[in-house]
Amino acid sequence: MSEMLFEPLFFTDNNFFPLDAFESIEEDWDVRRTRINSGEIDVNLSFFQTPRLQFSSVHYTNAIFMEGTPPQGTMMISFIKSSDNCSFQNNILEPYELIILQHGQEIDFLANNAHTIYNLAIEEGFFTRSFFQYFNQELHQTIKQQKLKIKEKDIESFLQGMKSILSGFQHLEQKMEPHLYNNIEQNILNSFFSYIEIENRKTSKIKFDISKAREILHENIDNFYTIGDLVEELHISSRTLQYNFKSRLGLSPKEYIHYLRLNAIRKILISGDSTTVTISTLISKYGFLHPSHFGVEYKRVFGETPSQTLKKKQ
Questions:
Q1: b/e per residue, 110-122, with b = 16+ CB within 10 A?
Q2: Are 46 and 13 in contact, with CB atoms under 8 Å apart?
Q3: Cβ atoms of residues 248 and 205 within 8 Å
Q4: Ramachandran assignment for 106, one of left (phi > 0), alpha (psi -120 to 50 degrees), beta (any other)
Q5: pLDDT tens for residues 235-261?
Q6: Domains of the chain, start order
Q7: pLDDT tens per residue, range 120-140
């Protein structure tokens, strides 16, 4: 058996806690979250870890945009349950579609409403070998040409099965020797595979590269860069830009850069020193022309004033 990726551990809590507190308990994940709606985000988390596998159920009470990468040495397989569209890597996810990534590949996920993410992070070699044994297909070739989905008829059984695995894990002996987890991990993975179907990918007719537009907006987050500048730089019409952002991300480009800038300011306020960081300087740096309007917008999104955020560091 290979070296342990995770320390065997079980955690569940029926209470919700603020997003900032949730981010502080993560160690192995390089994930950055951006609020893209008004109001606070609370999180409910349950997870367990074995030496080669981490399974979690995370419920967010509001919209969110996530970037990052899975832990080194792992594959990440995610299923999102939401009443609204979710996008991944600039495309709307199809119903019941799975997200599959390995370390180094970018988590690029946006949900426009409350949602639950069921996530399996698993040792890459273990997952690829088990996938081949179960489906008689090479994983990396499969995900290049096809997509993996939860069978529509089995969706409720799948969700209940994941919850049962999660709740049942608390009865296991926490101090077991690592090799004793082998059969447990294999059974969990085979159960997961039993709900999956493989489909051919649909040919996309979209020609506009929205990733380039997003990259430019991120690069100019603290510049006086406008959507008009973006249209001119990309040599496209404003209508094309608006349509692609709304249809594939659920946000207009103006809303997108607006939330990026608000979140960037908040991160500086949270990590900054009140003796060296001034709100007025940040407002000017990130292109907010009217301080009073900025204060209203900031409180609408984060539920507190900028000065209240800054004082938390004192």
A1: bbbbbbebbbbbb
A2: yes
A3: no
A4: beta
A5: 999 999 999 999 889 899 999 999 999
A6: 9-200 (2.60.120.10), 210-311 (1.10.10.60)
A7: 999 999 999 999 999 999 999
